Amino acid sequence: MKKQHGPLDDPLWVRAMRLVIAVTFLLVFLVTPLVLVFTAAFHDGPAAFWSAIQDPVALSAVRLTILTALVVVPLNVLFGIAAAWAIAKFEFPGRRLLITMIDLPFSVSPVIAGMLFVLLFGAHGFLGPLLEHNDIKIIFALPGIILATAFVTFPFVARELLPLMEAQENDPEEAALTLGASPWQMFRRVSLPRIKWGILYGAVLCNARAMGEFGAVSVVSGHIRGQTNTIPLHVEILYNEYQLSAAFAVASLLTVLAIVTLIAKSILEWKVGTK
Amino acid sequence: MSASRSRVLPGFGLSLGFTLAYMTLLVLIPLSTIVLRTATISPSDFWNTISSPRALAAFRLSFFTALAAALLNGVFGVLVAWVLVRDRFPGKRLLDGLVDLPFALPTAVAGIALTTLYSPDGWLGRFLEPMGIKVAYAPLGIVVALTFVGLPFVVRTVQPVLENVEGSMEEAAASLGAGRLATIRRVVLPEIRPALLTGMTLAFARGLGEYGSIVFISGNMPMKTEITPLLIMIQLEQFDYAGATALALVFLIASFVLLFVINSLIAKGSLRISRS
Question: Is A192 within 8 Å of chain B by CB?
């Protein structure tokens, strides 16, 4: 490849200035908050950091967050594969509408998303009396947290897989069928290996949002300490109680998760070949 | 580009059936409750809720802060995308990867970090405060939080387009005697405009609904720094479901109109590409 030259080279001062402005913008908006989280987390020393993380209430928040993600991510992966398969491989009326509707949860404010489930299952909601009668608790309990989280992370896997599968030819699948593979064998041995990195990519993004979701979970959780508090809600409580270094210590766990997510994301982007 | 769709492949009924069932249970039925609930509110109550001074102030604040953040991200997003595509500097790959941080970092963490940074004795606030610039606990803080949250959208939509216009077209314009600025204005800008608008609309839509990062930095003063999602939250906490539903419905309709605009923009954008 020939190197760029002549007409495309801006004067040195123009290049220097745009570089300085862009990098300063990124440093101020992205790097300083990151540095601050870890600095504030260790503000009162490593001992305070560890005791904030090993606090039983913090540990129960970690457990609840992991449990929620363990339910939500596989469900949305399953949905993503099914939706992408139906939309990418077949033509049917309403196909475009379905694509638009998959993105719906992204344009709903998380607070409103949580509210929907309160309207449906809350004490004053449509199904509230029925649930109360049968002694089933959804709002201010684990099922509500799972539903709200599943709602806000609904599109992630589907929207990653859809373009990937649309770009793939169907020849390998058709060949497998011709050679006598059963539909299930064809899917497992031929289709799945071709989309596995895409699935993982969507799952990583879905997981990051599921573990970090705040607004929607805040509405349905009821903030019961040690019971319905996820990690982000625990951070909020500590912060509002002016336990700043404890709040940032717990927040640093989520920040490490975010950094791991970014690293996994760039590795997977390279694997999928989207970038 | 799209592969030919098949009549031979199996699994259509199963995959579409599961897709529709899951979407209906998790998304459509919950969304329909908001319409059903609104139907039980008398029109005058509905109108009084959404036109109360506090609700109007919240709508206005949500709209203008999201718009300001989208515009800021429009300007800086193009600049950042430009630098990441065209310039070489040490640490470029690291910064490029970091652009997605707002997608990965939980909003509550962003909220408390930004609030601490911009509070009067924070790392950045201590310099801004003496200059009379109040960020934390002021509308400007909401703009800062929304700029953070929406930062990746414009960069990530403009970046691939900028990678594609590279070179030939600009060289052609330049060799035909166009100045550098004219080349950028006439050749590069029209090329990235659909992507830029899409990115800004996405950032704007995201900003409208954002809650987690804002509750910490805004100070939440009614009429002054109270955004619509927070007002909805307050009404839910007071068990005023009718009020919360009315506000949410108006807010949702605004969001859906936006989604429609985004999709038609994207459609227009792809039309441009297929023609050329």
Answer: no
A187 touches chain B (CB under 8 A): yes
Asked whether the predicted pLDDT for residue A7 surpasses 60, the reply is no
A155 contacts in chain B (CB < 8 Å):
none
Full DSSP string of A237-262: HHHHTT-HHHHHHHHHHHHHHHHHHH
Domains of chain B: 43-166+193-275 (1.10.3720.10)
ipTM summary value: 0.92
CA B241 – CA B51 distance, rounded (Å):
17
Write down the CATH number for the domain with range A46-272.
Answer: 1.10.3720.10
Please tell me if residue A203 touches chain B, with a CB cutoff of 8 Å: no
Of A110, A235, A239, the CB nearest to B211: A110
Using the beta-carbon criterion (under 8 Å), do B252 and A112 form an inter-chain contact? yes
Determine what percent of chain B falls in helix, strand and coil, rounding each to the nearest 5: 80, 0, 20
Q: Does B117 sit within 8 Å of A254, measured CB to CB? A: no
Overall size of chain B counted in residues: 276
| Whether B97 contacts A266, CB under 8 Å | yes
Instruction: For residue A7, give the nearest of B19, B83, B174 by CB distance.
Output: B174
pLDDT value of position B1: 39
The residues near B129 (Cβ < 8 Å, ≥ 6 apart) are: B120
Residue range(s) of every CATH 1.10.3720.10 domain in chain A = 46-272
Pick from B9, B72, B115 the residue to mutate for testing the A interface (most A CBs within 10 Å): B9
